[in-house]
Specification:
By secondary structure, the chain is mainly beta. It is built from 1 helix and 18 strands. The strands form 4 sheets. Strands 1, 11, 14, 15, 16, 17 and 18 form a 7-stranded antiparallel β-sheet that branches. Strands 2, 4, 5, 6, 7, 8 and 10 form a 7-stranded antiparallel β-sheet that branches. Strands 3-9 form a two-stranded antiparallel sheet. It is globular.
Amino acid sequence: MANLIMAFPNWLDAAAPYAAVSHTGGVWSADLPFANALNGNFATKAQTADTHVQHMVRWIDLGVERSIRVVAIPWFEGVTKNLRARLRVFSAYEDTGSSVLGDTGTIEVYREVFPSGALATWDEQFVDGKFTAEELDLYKVPFLHVFDTAVVGRYCYLELIDTGNAGAGGAGYVRFPRLYVSPGWQPSINVSADGASVVIEDRSITQEALGGTKFFEQLDKRRIARLSMGVLPQDEAFSRALDMQTRLGRTGDLFFSLDPADSSNLHRWSFAARMRTLSPVETAFYNHASTTFELEEVL
């Protein structure tokens, strides 16, 4: 089990005078350009023009050299379970022949999600342990990679591969709401033994008639993560937890994973989020502090 991780700040959000982020390459929809993945508005997404492997790429110049440890895309639309993703950090812009500073490797996004022994032999998912095509519409499965040590670089190259998408199994494009390229914060001391929970919040509206019949307006559900960090080194608590609240407030987004090393449950406890409440950083004992977080999934 790995310690939880929160990906912030997102270097793609940087703006002048601190850095000028730019991007080029691939073939993207004119109505849903790649720039949509950089603005934090999840209602407007980035979409490829088609699924040709040479078209589903993008070069990104972060403007200055950055420390990168977390790369994530919260979810995808229009894809098949063959989807794979990769991000490399190069020493030169638009030059895949230059030195590779960091490489996520080609990651199978829809990996095995049903642990061994969790399925009966007659279950449709028994052979590969993956979602069925029907279940792909029910779960938000992220692309997530955490580098063992931070990569320092400026030029990123994103590649998406979805074999068979152009056929009956896909929509003929790949669409996603957000890309995170971030140093991340993985606390040196994880949440307390009983200090982490993930709950599903149903936003649906229920009304009951006088006769007792109930009527529903179904709305999308979202996940809420509640975290209690009872013991953190004081410097870490203030430079990370308090600075995160200062930077993001309740409107800025981050990417959260309760345990990025558990591939079977990655999609269940990893999601884009905003802080629902801002909590105090409190002195626990000498040179140590404590704090809590309540994270609300971004839909």
